[in-house]
Amino acid sequence: MRLAGFVLSSLAFVNKDSPTTNTSTSTVNMAPNTTAEPIAAQVDESIYGKSGDLDKHMEGVKAQYDTKEKLEFYAQVMGDGTANIHFGKWDGVNLDEEGAYGKASEQMTDYMFDLAMSLKGGDGKVSYVDLGSGTGAAALRLCEQRDVIEKATCLNLCDEQNALAKERAAALGLAERVSVFTGTYEDCPFEKDSFDVAFSQDAFVHAFSKLKTFGEALRVTKPGGVFVFCDLMCGSGEGVSEEELATFAATNMVNDWLSPEENVKACQEAGWTDVKFVDLTSDIRISFQLMLRKVEKIVGEGNPAGIDEKLLDSYKKNLANRIVQVDRGVFKWGVVHAKKPAN
Fold first, then answer.
1. CB within 8 A of 135, min separation 6: which ones?
2. What angle is formed at CA 329 by the lines to CA 326 and CA 332, rounded to 5 degrees?
3. How far apart are CA 233 and CA 208, in angstroms?
4. Contact 321, 38 (CB under 8 A)
5. Greater model confidence, 302 or 150
6. Which is it for strands 12-14 and 273-279: parallel, antiparallel or unpaired?
7. Alpha-carbon gap, residue 73 to 295, rounded angstroms
8. Alpha-carbon span 163 to 62, nearest angstrom
9. What integer pLDDT is reported at residue 120 of this predicted model?
10. Cα R_g (the chain), whole angstroms
């Protein structure tokens, strides 16, 4: 695993200074905090520790997301009135309005799919695959709103999330357009050249091998198709040590944690072209802040949903630490987009 950031002169980057702090309304303190002492909750390293074993790694990912307690937590803290449990894009979102987090999460899904369609061009119907689809919320939302999608395919490791996705697809009358498969995006159960768009939100951070993952995405995408994903990436802030980066990776089911530059390079090595990174790190800081505020609200209201108290306490400590780590440059977050050669 390569943790130190490096820059290749041939890489194409789009630097985006997010207008979030100018266009969002909030009472949340937005000032960077680079001096607070990091606080981290203890984790069970027998479950979440880096093992180097693929099967154990996948079981750890399931444990992180696919339990009743975790599903309820993410629904309450990130879903915020929606089924979407991804990080948000906060342009124009009032941080104090009811359902702000859910609105930002859905806005991020829309932004990414619109970007994919603009890169693809043309006006015909498309098929797309969501790699690491979670509860299928992105696919269901997009299919509800966009007739251009002929078929959406969800691939996800977690059985409980997949059952929920199928149930929601049926309830929405989308079972014919949305298919759900259980499996890993590092060994996709699809024929080559199957989809116009390969898409992923906040899932590849858990890839055992980024290069293999990006290669599989290329294999199942049609010639001339596009690849768009967002993810938490390794930062290179001044004073951030290799040990700190390694500690985060070793306790969060992160086997192959790459910087934005390294993700771009890995995509290029896999065969993708026109690879670019859009920096949205300022948005993930707001996501962490709103998640922390939601956890504090749940605790302050006496935890009416009955979420596991230890889980709430753990996330409260870790979210406070994440905000400090963003300010210190431990993390980057944003979108990588690329195209598959037409022939």
1. 71, 83, 85, 161, 164, 165, 168
2. 70
3. 14
4. yes
5. 150
6. parallel
7. 9
8. 14
9. 96
10. 19
